[in-house]
TrEMBL record, chain A:
Keywords: Oxidoreductase, Plasmid, Thiamine pyrophosphate
Cofactor names: thiamine diphosphate
A GO molecular-function annotation: magnesium ion binding
Name by which UniProt lists this protein: Alpha-ketoacid dehydrogenase subunit beta
Domain Transketolase-like pyrimidine-binding: 10-185
NCBIfam families: PRK09212.1 (NF006667)
Naturally occurring in which organism (per UniProt): Streptomyces fungicidicus
Length: 330, 314
């Protein structure tokens, strides 16, 4: 990517692409398949140029058949390949949910340990681009509900660049959620960053007054909220979950043990969300550490609307996070 | 065929005695399909199966004791007791289940075939499914994908005329399944599934075509289950006369008669095979009865493989 020791400005999209390129260069069992990943260059431009470098066998355009090509990824993984399947959005992944849940997540157990499925599935998630309900939902909690899979949500350039390699090394299925609003995010990326630990959440910014806990596309809003809170004299700690299953409740509990207050932010609907699970864990495991009720800032319980004002109102925003933190701090 | 028949007849007894539980879908009447198709496959080929798979598993060479132990839910079962009747697996024989979601095995079968094609291995993946699966989108998505990518996939539709209790004509606007499969641009034939020699011949021809690199092939095997859909099924939707008509075409009886007509000493041979199979099944039941059950402390094993043998991460 660049000369060792220097930092290069890159985008989230380019970081993902570089991770794919590295994976395919280093292991000839790895191939990418999905809708428009080849000639089109990826629905969101992530795989642009990879067809030219690796050819149509390894950068494989599929029909609009989510169930068939995700299932084909499962079969190829069973046969010793390391497929990476791209699904355009989490909304469309529901057409493949049977394959993901009933096969990918289940075969290892159902076969008494004989059939691990080393499959990586990438998909976009989230709202904020006025794409209306069928392209904007955040269904990460659906997947985080399923035993047998790992669920990742890279929120930073470093995670976008370095989560794929350990995901491919995992013998079990891994689902990676890329928030659509992050693709153009840019910044410096150390060329030889430490590899990502998929088992642990990351404290992205230390603080002692309140723990702001989130994942994926809401992380930039968390930083903005923490800046505003700092200006108000509230020193907020920002925790990025990174992995939604297995959920690293330990790192969250340790943060809350320092701050004694928690605000959980999740773009998904509040009911049955990752935020709901995390709040329950805090109630179970950190009850006596808490000096205030857990605050949740979640998506409104509505299919995401197209109109900009309504879409903004349906999603967690910085002002709402700041207000929740002030309520927690009291 | 006899091994499958007798194994399943014993399963009925064991089920009635509450020794085995869950859903048990019997293959009795359809044995010619599993035996004929497996005869055309080599050990390197892969087989993807359905929930009605005792016959496929036995024809693929899974030991009866491993299957019986699985029905008993014992650790010595071919799926360690985690699968039961509907989820038999044996990776050493490239036997990939055991899918109880109708048509759910089709996309992974395409993936197994894709892996072979990407690596240039001259292997075939054979996927069994029923006429009910033909009505699912996954069949059509997979047929399209396999034909589009020239995958070495043998699609075997066991058309036993009923999807659970729904007759073919009540589930399909067009009941000529081979013709519909042919519309994807793959060779497709309808074959008498009650005639093991006809099945084996058709399967050999298809497998040869696939190995020659001509892409996926489709076989519609017209067959019939003599028993109900599952042990829970009162079978009210079928005419008794229809069942008797099909029983007169019993694949085991037909083969026996044909051999007898050819002057082979079939009766002595049959008696010998019957004795051997009875011993084999007695042994399988006895072994299953005595096999250990997995301790409850191991409940969370095999959820993820990273810590197989330990309690899995949540």
């Amino acid at each position: 990517m660049s000369t060792a020791g220097t930092q290069e400005t890159t985008t989230y999209r380019e970081a993902l692409r570089e991770a794919l390129r590295e994976a395919m260069r280093s292991d000839d069992r790895v191939f990418l398949m999905g809708e428009d990943v080849g000639r089109y260059g990826g629905c969101f431009g992530v795989s642009l140029g990879l067809l030219e470098e690796f050819g149509p066998d390894r950068v494989r355009d599929t029909p609009l058949s989510e169930s068939a090509f995700v299932g084909a990824g499962i079969g190829a993984a069973l046969a010793g390949m390391r497929p990476i399947v791209e699904i355009m959005t989490v909304n469309f992944s529901l057409l493949a949910l049977d394959q993901i849940l009933n096969n990918a997540a289940t075969l290892l157990h159902m076969s008494g340990g004989q059939l691990p499925v080393p499959l990586v599935i990438r998909m976009t998630t989230g709202a904020g681009r006025q794409l209306a309900a069928q392209h904007s939902h955040s269904l990460e909690s659906f997947y985080a509900h399923i035993p047998g899979i790992r669920v990742l949500a890279p929120a930073t350039l470093e995670d976008a660049r370095h989560m794929l390699a350990p995901a491919l090394a995992d013998p079990d299925p891994v689902v990676i959620f890329e928030h659509g609003s992050l693709y153009n995010a840019s910044g410096p990326l150390a060329p030889q960053a430490a590899s990502v630990d998929l088992d642990h959440a990351a404290v992205r910014r230390p603080g002692d007054a309140v723990s702001l806990i989130t994942y994926g596309g809401s992380l930039p809003k968390m930083f903005a909220a923490a800046d505003e809170l700092a200006a108000d004299g509230v020193d907020a700690e920002v925790v990025d979950l990174r992995t939604l299953r297995p959920l690293d409740a330990g790192t969250v509990a340790a943060s809350v043990a320092r701050t004694h207050r928690a605000v959980v932010v999740d773009e998904a609907w509040r009911t049955g969300s990752v935020a709901a699970e995390l709040s329950a864990r805090l109630a179970e495991e950190s009850f006596y550490e808490l000096d205030a009720p857990v605050e949740r800032v979640c998506g409104a319980e509505v299919p995401i609307p197209y109109a900009r004002r309504l879409e903004e109102a349906a999603l967690p925003q910085t002002a709402g996070i700041v207000a929740a933190a002030h309520r927690a701090v009291g | 065929m006899l091994r499958i028949r007798r194994f399943e007849e014993r399963c009925v007894e064991l089920y009635s005695a509450s020794k085995i539980r869950g859903f048990v879908h019997l293959y009795i009447g359809e044995e010619a399909v599993a035996v004929g198709v497996n005869a055309a496959l080599s050990p390197e080929d892969a087989v993807v199966s359905t929930y009605r798979e005792h016959g496929h598993a036995l024809a693929r060479g899974l030991p009866p004791e491993a299957i019986m132990a699985e029905m008993y839910g014992r650790t010595t079962g071919c799926s360690g007791g985690r699968g039961g009747s509907m989820h038999l697996f044996d990776v050493s024989r490239r036997f990939y289940g055991g899918s109880a979601i109708v048509a759910g095995g089709l996309p992974p079968a395409a993936g197994l075939a894709l892996a072979d094609r990407l690596r240039g291995l001259p292997r075939v993946t054979c996927c069994f499914f029923g006429d009910g699966a033909f009505a699912e989108g996954e069949f059509h998505e997979t047929a399209n994908l396999a034909a589009l990518w020239d995958l070495p996939l043998l699609l075997v539709c066991e058309n036993n005329l009923y999807a659970m209790g729904t007759a073919l004509a009540r589930e399909h606007a067009q009941t000529d399944l081979a013709m519909r499969a042919a519309s994807y641009g793959m060779p497709a034939w309808a074959v008498d599934g009650m005639d093991v020699e006809a099945v084996a011949q058709a399967a050999r021809r298809a497998v040869e075509g696939i190995r020659a690199g001509t892409g996926p092939h489709f076989l519609e095997l017209r067959t019939y289950r003599f028993r109900a859909h599952s042990m829970y099924d009162p079978d009210r939707y079928r005419d008794k006369a229809e069942i008797e008509r099909w029983k007169s075409r019993d694949p085991i009886g037909r083969l026996t008669e044909r051999m007898r007509d050819d002057g082979e000493p079939v009766d002595e041979e049959l008696a010998r095979i019957e004795r051997r199979i009875a011993d084999e099944i007695d042994h399988a039941v006895d072994a299953a009865e005595r096999a250990p059950e997995e301790p409850v402390e191991d409940l969370l094993r095999h959820v993820t493989s990273a810590r197989a043998g330990e309690v899995n991460r949540q």
